[in-house]
Amino acid sequence: MNLYLYDLRPTPEGFERVYDYEEFVAFILKNGLSEFTVHSQNPAGKENIETLLNNLKKFQS
After folding, report:
1. Rounded mean pLDDT of the chain?
2. Quick one: three-class SS letters along 4-41?
3. Phi, psi at residue 15, to the nearest 5°?
4. Distance CA 33, CA 16 (A)
5. pLDDT the model gives residue 27
6. What is the pLDDT of residues 11-44, one digit of tens each?
């Protein structure tokens, strides 16, 4: 499943959409977290998101 978190841009085809952090957390809690790829134009933000998701994945295991 592809998840798209953004509040302004159109949702790409084939993606589920969440608009904010609260919706993102609710989606992950409901559906779990498997493999993921983070796309961001902000390298530091991308790294922060990947670190948080990797920590969550370890916690869920």
Report:
1. 89
2. EECCCCCCCCCEEEECCHHHHHHHHHHHCCCCCCCCCC
3. -115, 145
4. 14
5. 92
6. 999 999 999 989 988 998 899 888 888 988 899 9
